[in-house]
Amino acid sequence: MKIAIEGCCHGELDKIYETIEYIQERDNIKVDLLLCCGDFQAVRNRSDLKCMAVPLKYQKLNTFYKYYSGEKEAPVLTLFIGGNHEASNYLAELPYGGWVAPKIYYLGYAGVVNFGGVRIAGLSGIYKGHDYLKGHFEKPPYGEDTKRSVYHIRNLEVFRLKQLSGDVDIMLSHDWPRGIYNHGNTNELLRYKPFFRDEVEANKLGSRPAEDLMNHLQPKYWFSAHLHVKFAAMVEYQNEDSDRGLRTTRFLALDKCLPKRKFLQVIDVPQQPNTPMRLTFDKEWLTILHSTNHLLTTSPTTQYMPGPGCEDRYNYTPQEDELVQIDTAMSADYRIPANFEPTVPAHSPANDTRNVAAPCCMVNPQTTALCRRLRLTDPHAVLTGQQQLNIHCVLPPPFPREPKNLDEVDVSLMEPSDLTYTSLNPDEIAVDLDDDDDDDESNNSVLNSLPHCEDDVAIVVASGSQDADISGILLTEQSDTEDTAADAKPLTSSREAHSLTGESGQPNSVEESSTEKTSLNVPEKRLSDSGETGGTGKKFKRRNAALYQFMAEDD
Question: Cis omega before residue 400 (within 30°)?
Answer without folding.
Answer: yes
